[in-house]
């Protein structure tokens, strides 16, 4: 289970990341117009059409789903291989998420970190940090996983 992860990845994946998923869910679900308008720092949309609202609400639902899956995997399984496989899936999604942001923002906006708004920081900065943390974990840079406790003998 996630308690077997080294300290830094355990904090990042069981506390920080779930909270960021809840923040994504809240932003997209509670205020879809704001959420859509903030996707790029150049956006200025006071209102959104039904299509954009639907996509924002669907994305909010997806954030909520990933939060629930993360909670289920990281807090219930006793198999470290299940946790690692979950983290591999997230690592792949991190890479594609940052790439999609790059593709839509374009090179100039993507590298103009000073012009990023909070949403770009979340989409690119936080996702890149999560990806790098997963990479470091896979490479063993945080140390080994904590060994499983030996079963207690009954007397």
UniProtKB/TrEMBL annotation:
Pfam family, any one: DUF7704
TM helices/strands, residue ranges: 12-35, 55-74, 86-105, 125-143
Organism annotation: Coniella lustricola
Name of the protein in question: DUF7704 domain-containing protein
Keywords: Membrane, Transmembrane, Transmembrane helix
Residues of the DUF7704 domain: 2-144
PANTHER family: CHROMOSOME 1, WHOLE GENOME SHOTGUN SEQUENCE (PTHR37019), EXPERA DOMAIN-CONTAINING PROTEIN (PTHR37019:SF2)
Lineage: Eukaryota, Fungi, Dikarya, Ascomycota, Pezizomycotina
């Amino acid at each position: 289970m996630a308690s077997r992860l080294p300290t830094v990845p355990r904090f990042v994946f069981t506390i920080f990341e779930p909270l960021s998923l809840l923040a994504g869910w809240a932003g997209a679900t509670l205020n879809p117009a704001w959420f859509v308008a903030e996707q790029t720092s150049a956006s200025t949309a006071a209102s959104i059409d039904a299509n954009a609202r639907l996509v924002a609400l669907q994305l909010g639902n997806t954030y909520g789903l990933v939060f629930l899956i993360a909670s289920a995997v990281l807090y219930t399984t006793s198999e470290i291989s299940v946790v690692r496989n979950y983290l591999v899936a997230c690592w792949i999604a991190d890479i594609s998420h940052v790439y999609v942001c790059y593709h839509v923002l374009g090179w100039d906006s993507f590298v103009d970190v000073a012009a990023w708004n909070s949403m770009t920081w979340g989409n690119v900065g936080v996702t890149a940090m999560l990806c790098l943390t997963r990479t470091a974990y896979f490479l063993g840079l945080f140390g080994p996983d904590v060994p499983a406790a030996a079963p207690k003998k009954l007397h």
